[in-house]
Specification:
about 270 residues; alpha/beta; Spore Coat Polysaccharide Biosynthesis Protein SpsA, Chain A; 11 helices; globular
């Protein structure tokens, strides 16, 4: 049941020399029929006209800073420290809320659940497609996927227990956060079966050059935080690489689903 009290949302947008993308993001937020509690823009010291676009805005719930940062997650943590809403959505420069009514649709569903998340419309150079996030969440799920920070409303108090984004990681700190939140801290979750955000698929994590670094960072996290599961992770990763059809078969998926349940309950 939806809460009788409306939860408030802080939207955090980080930007560095992406004036075109920033303008799209700002427009999608400020055109909402239900306004966020606050809109926080963390700029990394842009020199491309981004600051001029921010200065054009007159909304009194818009906060912004522009200064050098040490990376994506340092910037997101800066925004998080300024946030005062019940929930936080990280909508980075170039991403857009799917339509002007989406916050009005989501706000009544923010009923105290720790993480409320929906689907993404992935925008590539020549195509668009919907990325569904309706799979049951388990440790096995996070071996191959994550939750979309662009489509996830995270209760701000969750960061007090799980911790903020790990700034030693360059690409997959959001993956680490969601992995720990769900699998270590047992945060409550709610899946919304509709698209929340139009995702600009041109960021660092979607760059093929970054895939090796992402794999290395995931290894580092798993070895440190989940050493008992690391061997299984590597075996599954190699299986998917060598036998993609087998790894995606229903039988193998069922096996790992049952195994995850067994591990969880024992």
């Amino acid at each position: 049941m939806p809460s009788l009290l409306k939860s408030s949302i802080s939207i955090v947008t980080i930007n560095l020399n992406n004036a075109v993308g920033l303008k799209k993001t700002i427009t999608s937020v400020l055109n909402q029929t239900a306004k966020p509690h606050e809109f926080i823009i963390v700029d990394g010291g842009s020199t491309d006209g981004s600051i001029g676009i921010i200065n054009e805005q007159t909304e009194n719930n818009l906060k912004w800073i522009s200064e050098p940062d040490t990376g994506i997650y340092n910037a997101q943590n800066k925004g998080l420290r300024q946030a005062t809403g019940d929930y936080v959505l990280f909508l980075n420069s170039g991403d857009e809320l799917i339509n002007k009514e989406i916050l009005e649709k989501v706000i009544p569903l923010l009923n105290g659940t720790d993480i409320v998340y929906g689907d993404l419309l992935i925008v590539e150079l020549s195509t668009e497609w919907v990325k569904k996030y309706n799979d049951p969440l388990s440790f096995g799920y996070f071996l191959g996927d994550t939750l979309p920070h662009q489509g996830s409303f995270i209760k701000r108090s969750v960061f007090d227990s799980v911790g903020r984004f790990d700034e030693t990681l360059r690409i997959c700190s959001d993956w680490k956060f969601f992995l720990n939140a769900v699998c270590r801290f047992n945060c409550s979750i709610l899946y919304l079966d509709f698209v929340v955000t139009r995702y600009d698929f041109s960021g660092i994590s979607s760059d093929p050059v970054s895939k090796k670094r992402m794999a290395d960072e995931k290894d580092t996290v798993l070895i440190k935080d989940f050493p008992r599961f690391y061997k299984e992770y590597k075996e599954l990763f190699e299986l998917r690489g060598k036998y993609p059809l087998l790894a995606n078969s229903r039988a193998v998926k069922f096996y790992f689903k049952i195994r995850n349940i067994f591990i969880r309950d024992n």
